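Quick log. Single chain, no ligands specified.
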Amino acid sequence: MGAERVFACGAATGLLGDLLFGDPRRGHPVAVFGRGAAALEHLLWRDHRGWGALHTALCAGSVVGAGALAARLVRRSPAAATALTAAATWAVVGGTSLAREATAIGEALAAGDTGAARARLPHLCGRDPESLDAAGMARAVVESVAENTSDAVVGALVWGALAGVPGLLGFRAVNTLDAMVGHKSPRHRRFGWAAARLDDLTGAPGARLTAALAVLAGGDPRGAARAWRADAGAHPSPNAGPVEASFAGALGVRLGGTLSYGGRVEHRPVLGGGGREVEVTDIRRAVRLSRRITALSLVVCAAASLVRTRAGAR
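-> predicted structure:
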């Protein structure tokens, strides 16, 4: 097998592993990284952007460096390089866990068990479950499926296609750091600034590809494109905006509006204003759309990696 096929075969194998096994219950590499990042934050924390930038550089840089070293060690063996790419892909993607959690919440809501749905919602997103009724939880789940399709799957594949194993691992490290320190809490408003900005930059390609594939794979291409064009810019996140807007248009629903995080209420613009309110059955539709986008993104990223490898060999 030639080097130009390493990413395609490795990424496909890693996605298959995620589909078959999901995330491990113990010892997940991302959880190990998170514990290390938290320990380093304990040592470095100051209410200052510079110290936060140092924390981000050390955490993300060490992961990228380890990935680059591992890739260098196996570069002469396509089989070993493919195995490393597969392991890295499996470690960083989370599409199966995303679908499982979303489906479980949807089933609880369909059965009228809002208590069980509220108990599971924090596994999927950071909303305050006690402030949400059944419709609000369904909307939160659809929004989380949309955003995490980009963050937990497509973005990683994009960076894998661009930079191989270091790209796969580095993207996940940055995304995890943003989830840990990038929010605007009093403790992290300054310290997490660098992580949040870096996540905006690294997440941009995957978010645009996710939105484009939602237009192609959704049930209403025109509606998805129209919502992306009209509403994405109003979202406070430059990356979540295109993804959630395109999902809203593709599914024919309205997303956004009032939400609560950690006791802080936010009033966000409505995405897909011409659609209807989210219903519980839309959770399964969002999961199916997410899976189609995952498959298409693998094809696109594998083709991009093939072109990049051949161009570099000339």
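The radius of gyration is 19 Å.
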